[in-house]
TrEMBL record:
Belongs to the ZP domain family. ZPC subfamily. Proteolytically cleaved before the transmembrane segment to yield the secreted ectodomain incorporated in the zona pellucida. This is Zona pellucida sperm-binding protein 3. Keywords: Cell membrane, Cleavage on pair of basic residues, Disulfide bond, Extracellular matrix, Glycoprotein, Membrane, Secreted, Signal, Transmembrane, Transmembrane helix. The ZP domain is involved in the polymerization of the ZP proteins to form the zona pellucida.
Length: 435
């Protein structure tokens, strides 16, 4: 009896231990048992009924420590304070390059030439009489008598009062060509004009022209006169720009409101050019065109070459060729505008002209002087800014050439700017005979 009681007690103890072990295993595998409400943070490790640390519970607690606390707090409190302390903001920035505003589209139409009436022909019984206006192209440019001929026969006289050149010869002279039709005898002549360069320059400002002249004689001896449609030779002219401290040259509209969208001109047209300097962070500057040279190719040292602004800002073209080229009155210190009458080089196959200018800038507060000026010729030398005394040396020498001194009271900047090519076409005209 006593033995059976002892066995029963042992079975009960073993069953109780198995129950505790099974409960511990479920506790370690269930995530809900690890929530804070079932195991407050103030408690230590939970002991089993036998006072021993459950191995499943211990492993679970170490896993919780490794994955949460260590991952969330990799640095100590001192490191946190250093990382969260005030940081001095950077005061250096990349320089901002100002954007150049784009030119707006403008309503531009190239002006077409008009038809002049500048050649008159009168045929008599045995002679031909031709009168040619000196303003052959009706553009204000007078042709030179030495460039006009008819079949190799030169001008015989000039009527200065009416501005007319006269050619008169026998019908069989001047390499005339006789043709016979069913009803007529026709004498044909070739009236040609070859532009002659201005004295001391390699440039011309008139088109070459070929005009057919015919005298018709009917079998009843009625005489009539007529001119044929002339043949014109296309030509061109030029421009382009920029440099050091942002010097630039630009073609401008007739009213100077914006850049010109076309680079096509006709001989006799006025080319508006604006020289400017970008100011950006500089003190206010005043710009001058010191010199300008025109060439057929971009090489400024090539031949032929024509210097139309020289001697530190003297616009000599108007004096040398009696053109209307000039500096415009100054409206802005950092811009200077000038007008150049279109021209071309005598002879040659290339219709292009390239313009290279030396441009200077001085502080706007410095006065203009003999080395820093903008002078035009019109019955004397006149300055664009009104200081006409600075132009007194334009007929002589205004000072040193390269590396000239800065103006009184200021420094100067200098660079080159270019334009080219711009096409200058000859006007397609029909010359109507004057009866």
């Amino acid at each position: 009896m006593g033995f059976l009681q002892g066995v029963l007690v042992l079975v009960v103890i073993v069953a109780f231990d198995l129950k505790n072990a099974w409960g511990s295993l479920r506790y370690s595998q269930s995530p809900s048992i690890m929530k804070p409400q079932s195991a407050p943070a103030s408690r230590g490790p939970v002991l089993s009924s036998q006072g021993l640390l459950n191995p499943f519970q211990k492993a679970s607690q170490f896993q919780s420590f490794d994955s949460r606390k260590f991952a969330q707090e990799p640095l100590g409190s001192q490191e946190k304070q250093l990382m969260q302390g005030p940081v001095k903001p950077l005061d250096w920035k990349f320089p901002i390059v100002p954007e150049v505003p784009r030119e707006l589209a403008v309503n531009f139409q190239l002006r077409q030439p008009v038809t002049p009436s500048s050649v008159a022909v009168q045929c008599s019984e045995n002679r031909v009489h031709v009168e040619v206006k000196k303003d052959l192209f009706s553009n204000g440019q007078l042709i030179q008598p030495s460039g006009l001929s008819m079949g190799g026969c030169p001008v015989v006289r000039e009527d200065s009062a009416s501005g007319v050149l006269i050619i008169e010869y026998e019908l069989q002279d001047c390499n005339s060509v006789l043709m016979m039709t069913e009803n007529e005898l026709v004498y044909t002549f070739a009236l040609t004009y070859t532009p002659v360069a201005f004295a001391g320059t390699p440039i011309i400002r008139a088109e070459g022209a070929l005009v057919g002249v015919q005298c018709h004689y009917q079998r009843l001896f009625n005489v009539s006169s007529n001119t044929l449609k002339p043949t014109w030779v296309p030509y061109a002219s030029t421009e382009v720009g920029e440099d050091l401290l942002q010097f630039s040259l630009n073609l401008m509209m007739d009213d100077w409101s914006s850049q010109r969208p076309s680079n096509v001109y006709y001989l006799g047209d006025i080319i508006n050019i604006e020289a400017s300097v970008k100011v950006y962070n500089h003190v206010p500057l005043r710009v001058f065109v010191d010199s300008c040279v025109a060439t057929r190719v971009p090489d400024v040292n090539s031949v032929p070459r024509y210097s139309f602004i020289e001697n530190h800002g003297c616009f000599v073209d108007a004096k040398a060729t009696a053109s209307s080229s000039r500096f415009m009155p100054r409206t802005q210190e950092d811009k200077i505008r000038f007008q150049l009458e279109a021209f071309m080089f005598q002879g040659g196959d290339s219709p292009s002209i390239y313009i290279t200018c030396t441009v200077k800038a001085t502080v706007a507060s410095a006065p203009s002087d003999a080395l820093h000026k903008s002078c035009s010729f019109s019955n004397g030398w006149l300055a664009a800014d009104g200081n006409h005394q600075a132009c007194g040396c334009c007929d002589s020498t205004c000072g040193p050439g390269v590396g000239s001194a800065a103006p009184i009271g200021g420094v100067q900047w200098e660079g080159n700017a270019s334009l080219g090519p711009v096409m200058v076409k000859e006007r397609q005209k029909t010359l109507a005979g004057l009866q």
